[in-house]
Amino acid sequence: MAFPLTDNQLKIVNHIDGPLLVIAGPGSGKTRVLTERITNLLNLGKKRILALTFSNKAAEEISERVKQNIDEELHDNVLVGTIHSFCLDVVMNRGNLIGLPNGLVIFESDVDKLEIMKRVANEITELRNGTLNSSGKSNMLKSYLKQISEYKQNFVTPEILLDSNNDNEVEFAKIYEAYNNMMLSQRALDFDDILFYAYRIFIERPQIAKSYTRLYKYIFVDEAQDLNEAQYKVITALCSEFGNIMMVGDPAQSIYGFNGSNSDFMTNHFKRDYKPTEFKLVENFRSTRKIIEAAKKIQNNVDSSAVYPLEGELTVCKFHNETEEALWVLNKIKNLMAEGSKWVENSISYENIAIIARNRYVLSKVQETLIANNIPINHGASSRNIESESIAIKIFEAGLRVIINQYDNVHFNQILGLIKYKIKMNASSDLNYLEMLMELDNSNMDSAYIYIFNTVKKAWKVLLEDEEHFSKALNVITLHLVKNEINDEEIDENEQYLIQKDIAMWREHWQKYCSQSVTGQRTLSHFRNQVSLGKTQSHNNSGISLLTVHMSKGLEYDIVFLIGLNEGTFPDYRAKSHKELKEEFNNMFVALTRARRVCYITYPTSKIMPWGDSKYQYPSTFLSKMGFI
Prior knowledge:
Layout: H1 7-13, E1 20-24, H2 30-43, E2 48-53, H3 56-69, E3 78-82, H4 83-94, E4 105-106, H5 110-121, H6 134-153, H7 158-162, H8 167-185, E5 188-189, H9 191-204, H10 206-215, E6 216-221, H11 229-238, E7 245-249, H12 264-274, E8 277-281, E9 283-284, H13 289-298, E10 305-306, E11 313-319, H14 322-339, E12 353-357, H15 364-372, E13 377-378, H16 391-404, H17 409-418, H18 433-438, H19 450-465, H20 470-482, H21 493-516, H22 524-532, E14 544-548, H23 549-552, E15 557-562, H24 578-592, E16 595-604, E17 606-608, E18 614-616, H25 621-625
Parallel strand pairs: 1-7, 1-8, 2-3, 2-6, 4-5, 6-7, 9-10, 11-16, 12-14, 12-15, 13-14, 15-16
Antiparallel strand pairs: 17-18
Helix pairs in contact: 1-2, 2-3, 4-9, 5-6, 5-8, 9-10, 9-11, 13-24, 14-15, 16-17, 16-19, 19-20, 20-21
């Protein structure tokens, strides 16, 4: 049911020039207002528009909605993407202006970054003296990577540390600089580098920022409550002398504090820096009255009013243990599917239902119960990192990276390890690892992998002839290693099964990439970076959604089961400070407001602990806050 725009919504849609801040509560039509304002500006001939958000799924939704409302010739006038994807384009296209090499690729895997840090560690005396065991050394290297990540997120360079009065920081600057240099010798970036280098480009070359704001006459930032310091600084560096910026978000839905996000950047810093016109959207067009009333008790400073005339249902149920809780959820779902709900007009499908918990482990018993009863489920979006399981496709994937980047000895050496190559090759920035890869001597590799390697090599040759023949390259592997029709080589059935699964996964990624790109302009480098950014993910929405609170953000369902509402679970036992507890209340607010019509809240009074004992569980503080206990 689409409601007509309210007076406030109309004012936002019709706002033309000047900074704009929109505080938009759950179900208040945030995405609709944002897309209709973009549509309005484009139809008024206001040239190009840039819209930035935090997830590929949100970017796709906004883009699709806008394109449905404008003429096809205007489609190229709007660019919608994540902050990371926009910044990566900046770095790839303008990085040479701050001394970055061409052809950069993303090392998103922790394994790859750890390998780089191991190489750095070989140059550090403290780690060569043999006083640390392998576990201690690994932990130290991970702590170095974490520290470097924190510095990059705050735009602290090695040069800044070298000027410090702190001897430890000066010493660490050498590690930090060596890590950066070794990454660049591989023509590689990590995720923090994307924002780090984009910021440097805008600050050190302000004319570049101006070129973007001349190109894009209006800039939108969706879900602005999720901005962290690095992201806010990138936006302000881009928009240093630019006023047509709109931020949309809801401070009550700020739940990513563990990533450094803070709604203050939207509510305080943006107000101070841009003095925007402010609007608040308080009407909730999504949820029924009982759900909104409960949510307002969790966030009593939220001014939200119900638009639906329906009362809805909000029920709290207590159970002896998690098994009883899971069985009740199962039976309630069966009942809803058979008889429906008086609060939902149409018949209920599995896709209308979500089961939400604070953490993934809370969902375990429910998941086990639903699967045992043949109830289809999904876990929302897959993770950004994709990992092949078969040896053959691991070799193929690592080889892709070497084809893309002949300086990549990290993945070249991964291949040597996978095929148990007998000769160790020393890394050097002067070597062409692609040539070396294609000339590896079969006699030096484990005999069990010779046939697999030679087959994958045929697939690489297909790509070296034409990078757009990715599907054809996968077909080569299928023909030789799975169908096994044209050779006498025995490939283990389990390995064949894993190869099939991996090929299906990579084929899906390639098909999604093809749908987002134009024939004749596709490259393996661009494809691999899009995979790293998560832009080729497929979102599986079939079946009942089993989600953590963080995964549920931005989604909505007719029926929501909010399970495991025990003290120490939700709110999380680790939330001690005022800031952490505030974020837990935000988490609960988000979880409740995913429900359109009905929300069932459940909790067990005992749980089996990991060591086997049963432990009494107290009901969550949130239940007393809402007046249920």
